[in-house]
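Title: Request for sanity check on Protein kish prediction

Description:
We are preparing a figure and want to confirm that the structure record we downloaded matches what your pipeline produces today. Could someone re-run it with the sequence below and paste the raw structure tokens into this thread? We only need the token string, no images.
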Amino acid sequence: MPLPPLHASFAPGPEGRCGRGFASLTRSAIFNFQSLLTVILLLLCTCAYILSLALSLLDRNKTGLLGIFWKCVRTGEQNSPYVAVCCIVVAFSILFIQ
């Protein structure tokens, strides 16, 4: 007796394959450019905001794994006009195009 499908997208289609394939199983920001851009912009803006609240929190961790957040702060500060334009474009895209 065959087992029932776990989800509708796993049910075999007319071609004999399961659902929509690998693309339906990997709904991550890594594989979607717009989602990846949104996550990066949110990271840059959040780190810059945290720096404005607590200066010593991010400035003492310049190396290691937490150094990524320090680098995000510096990138957000040095490229703030570009980051702002990208935030506006992504917000417009999410609100009106999707």
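Thanks, this matches our download. The chain has a mean pLDDT of 77.
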